[in-house]
Amino acid sequence: METTTLQQLVEHDKNHECEGVGKDRICVKIAAAAHLPSRFGDFQVVGFTNNKDGKDHAAFVHGDVVDREDVPIRMHSECLTGDAIGSLRCDCRDQLEAALTALGKMECGILLYLRQEGRGIGLTNKIRAYQLQDQGLDTVEANHALGFRDDERDYGIAAHMLHSLRVKSVALMTNNPNKLKGLEALGVKVSRRIPHIMIPNEFNAAYLKTKQTKSGHMLAEQGEGE
Questions:
Q1: Is the pLDDT of residue 169 over 90?
Q2: How far apart are CA 20 and CA 169, in angstroms?
Q3: Is residue 80 predicted with pLDDT exceeding 50?
Q4: CA–CA separation, 59 vs 104, rounded Å?
Q5: What is the mean pLDDT of residues 173-196?
Q6: SS3 sequence, the chain?
Q7: How far is CA 137 from the centre of its chain?
Q8: Please, which pLDDT band fits residue 226 given cuts at 50, 70 and 90?
Q9: What is the set of domains in the chain, with CATH numbers?
Q10: Could you give the percent of the chain with pLDDT greater than 90?
């Protein structure tokens, strides 16, 4: 049987419209795909548009994933301070690079890069939360003080992205039980979990501990993953 390519999915999605996924009825469309060699391996980058937030989201695809089962997946939420600047207050850049390195060595896999800065509260509010943390609050307390939930992220876009790529089931690279539950509730079959453990540093140890004790993350004693 001939394998469907990402370019064929781009053509297929040109006029895509559907009733959407999740409570917000999010409809995602594959807009473009291109070859992307990287320091982590050979990937293809797939750009997505959607009818909800006006933001462009991306999938970094290694190998053939279309119509495959048990595809290793990492959902990574955008973190400007960590991903681009190398902030030590979080482990986001460590998570991103570790995931891409691992996926680049596998037969196939996908990293979904989701534009959900600051667990969905946005960049400026994340900086406001940092300011409150400087005054002694932990990450959960800071979010609550700003009027947000612990985590405002939504995985409807991620679920539709996986549906658009025609992934049949995923091996989810995470330690966050909410990601497992969130995807499964949106119709994504999660075949297994791949732990994603990072070693804390002196600046993010309390942040990681809060994730474990207040957000229920499945963390090893000396590490963390989101």
A1: yes
A2: 19
A3: yes
A4: 14
A5: 92
A6: CCCCCHHHHHHHCCCCCCCCECCCCECEEEEEEEEEEECCEEEEEEEEEECCCCCCEEEEEECCCCCCCCEEEEEEECCHHHHHCCCCCCCHHHHHHHHHHHHHHCCCEEEEEECCHHHHCCHHHHHHHHHHHHCCCCHHHHHHHCCCCCCCCCCHHHHHHHHHCCCCCEEEECCCHHHHHHHHHCCCCEEEEECCCECCCCCCHHHHHHHHHHHCCCCCCCCECC
A7: 26
A8: very low
A9: 6-116+153-215 (3.40.50.10990)
A10: 68
What length is written for the chain?
A: 226
Backbone angles phi and psi of 93, in degrees to 5:
-65, -40
Please give the positions annotated as active site.
Answer: 151, 153
> What pTM does this model have?
0.89
Q: Are 166 and 59 in contact (CB under 8 A)?
A: no
